[in-house]
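haha ok so turns out i had the wrong file open the whole time. this is the CORRECT one, sorry everyone. sequence first:
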Amino acid sequence: MARSQEAAMDDAERPGSDEQLWSVFEFVRRYRLAKREENRLLMLYGPTASFRDLLANAQRHSLIS
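then structure:
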């Protein structure tokens, strides 16, 4: 593989400048998610994750059924 292809692959694997890392705790507080959902996100990602991943995987459980 050529060096330019290796560099391109490395750049693709790195989080881009547009990909913000958020504290899971801050995300849960801002979006008023349940403690159960906070624990689930912490198990998935640890204390920080990309904003895009958090939005894609967060689940809001209805209090009214």
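Residues 19-57 form one domain.
again sry for the mixup
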